[in-house]
Predict the structure.
Amino acid sequence: MTEDSKMETRCGFVALIGAPNAGKSTLVNQLAGAKVSIVSRKVQTTRSLVRGIAIEGSAQIIFVDTPGIFAPKRRLDRAMVTSAWGGAADADAVALLVDARKGVDEEVEAILARLPQVGGVKILVLNKIDTVEPPKLLELAARLNGELAFADTFMISALRGHGVPKFRQQLAALMRPGPWLYPEDQISDAPLRSLAAEITREKIFERLHDELPYQSTVETELWKDMPDGSARIEQTIYVMREGHKKIVIGEGGRTIKAIGTAARKDIMEATEQKVHLFLFVKVRENWGDDPERYREMGLEFPKN
Ligand SMILES: Nc1nc2c(ncn2[C@@H]2O[C@H](COP(=O)(O)OP(=O)(O)OP(=O)(O)O)[C@@H](O)[C@H]2O)c(=O)[nH]1
Ligand SMILES: [Mg+2]
């Protein structure tokens, strides 16, 4: 880049907020052009802020994926929701994602009520347009704009990519002049060991049901680059109950093997190196009340 074009660079933060399952992480991955944040069909998948970095012309846009906002009960839920609002407060622009199929429910109403307290440009994004008819979309856009004066409204399918390039272009124009904060080829600021732990957590979400995914967490304990270019990765899956440990392991170790195989494949794709993944399961009844676990997740530990 020449000195002149350097002068014109733009940069800024755009937080994506919304109810659980609105498609925030799917959108961040589309915008960054790679998997930086895990996705599942279940609610409350994302637990902390995940940044996906995109370049659009002379602008570097740092998209901040946030945990879904809902009425929190457990300590972990409170930490997640606090982190989401914190991400919104620190951003130059806040995009509210609404699942167009679900429309406006109690969760969306609660977000709309609090959103005016957050600074920055507010943008409405109707997601999952592949699932609804256009008249319903227009009606939804009108209703939401009636409740809050959004600077702009976009209709997209994060899953299929429809409307995503235009969304990114419009946001680039909103970014203020300033130097880029990350190197040109960087798509995330999360260390690989965190991404690797998240990927394994995603496989738990895919394969195990009910409360188990919510009562477990994954940490990368060891990442060793081997002389042959491969990596030896050891991870611990923390669960809250002995019964859960049995479920994670499965009959004859079948479940944990399947989780490991699927995780290893995705981790290899992310790191572009051969991976040997070793998974361990530990029962830690009170991990939900252990500040160390929150630190590992990148969350503030709520005092009560
Ligand atoms: N049909 C359709 N499904 C979508 C679209 N975007 C996301 N999804 C699906 O919606 C589900 C939730 O997606 P996520 O990206 O995990 O949602 P999220 O908002 O990050 O959820 P939390 O992290 O729990 O708050 C997944 O099954 C996605 O595949 C879309 O545009 N169309
Ligand atoms: Mg998410």
